[in-house]
Amino acid sequence: MFYKWTGFTPQKAAADLPRFFEQAKKLFEEIESIESPTWENIVYGLNDSLRAFCDTWSKVSHLNSVMNSPQWRSLKESWQPKVIEFFTSVQQSVKLYS
Length: 98
Known about the structure:
Elements: H1 10-32, H2 39-67, H3 70-91, H4 94-97
Helix pairs in contact: 1-2, 1-3, 2-3
């Protein structure tokens, strides 16, 4: 899901982030359970599974930086701990990197 910048609002992001986040977590769990890892099913799988969430989150972060409104700031502050926790678990996955 790639947004046009003109239609991307804090309300739209707040509505879509939970869905994309849950989808990314679910798909990452599936990737971790792959028994015969290959470049295609791990690297491409990670890229595909995280795309919608990462695209949305990067736009939230960018717009908070350049537009810094109370709505963008609140959205980023409420989601940042979840994002950090999730990406830390992805980057330190024993199942994935062992």
